[in-house]
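Q: TIR domain-containing protein, please. Structure only.
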Amino acid sequence: MEEFSQIWEHDYGYRDNFLQTVQDINEQYPEDKLVGFSIWWSDIPYDLRLFAYLNYSGSEDSAKKFFLEVGEKFNSIGSVYRGDLTHKNLIDAMGKRQLNYHTIAKGGPILAEFAFNTKEFLKKNGFNFERWDSSSKVFLSHQSERKNRAQMLQQSLSANGVSTWFDAVDIDYGENIATAISKGVKESKVVIFWISPKFLESDWCRYEFERFHSRYAGSNDVLILSIVEQNCIQYLPTFLQELKYLKIDEDLSVDRIAHLLVPSIYNYFKKVSVKRWSEGV
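A: Structure for TIR domain-containing protein:
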């Protein structure tokens, strides 16, 4: 008989379904086929992990059928197949005191003892796991010659309680720029275009403009604000001319610009929140 193995990983905090699935698999398949079955977990607070290791003995065809069935069970609860891990990796981690393990005996209960409660248990006791730092964001689109003023605007908006997406902060070195911008566009509820003389000549500014224009035309789920320098009004795209914009000169401070825009941002966020509440989102 040949032997085949798989390792599946699951969210430590949402383990109830995972442990039930493990129990079901243990009861469903005979001991002479499922010859190795164990769960491995980390109780290290900064690296909570949970795995299941399965070792199957049988023909290639029967193993293929077994892992197809098992895969459907684990996939249905959100587990992730870890083809990059081996049993040796788990053993090595245990030797470094990074993992605990429990061998699952045929017909026996799962006796693993976890140091931390599940998220379901904590939710029932009043804890909230929604990301408190994922508030609605304002995307700052600017040409590189205005980066210093755009950065001051970002800081002024932050002082007024407005979260932002700003390339100098939100794109890491080595990260794909187009991917990062697309993610920022998707996450942002508001965009501020700082229209300077070379804004429309910039490939990245045009890329950002086109993404938000497409989103506005398609679902109209974004507020578009424009800061337009006095000598750029004639170059403003028709689409932006149809939306009320803030015309500025060199004497208008960044702090004043922020104070002029913040009320519109707050009003839009409030409308979005009311709409989501009315739709039960």
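A: Brief note, in case it's useful. The beta strands are 2-9, 34-42, 49-58, 80-81, 100-103, 137-141, 163-165, 188-195, 223-229, 246-248.
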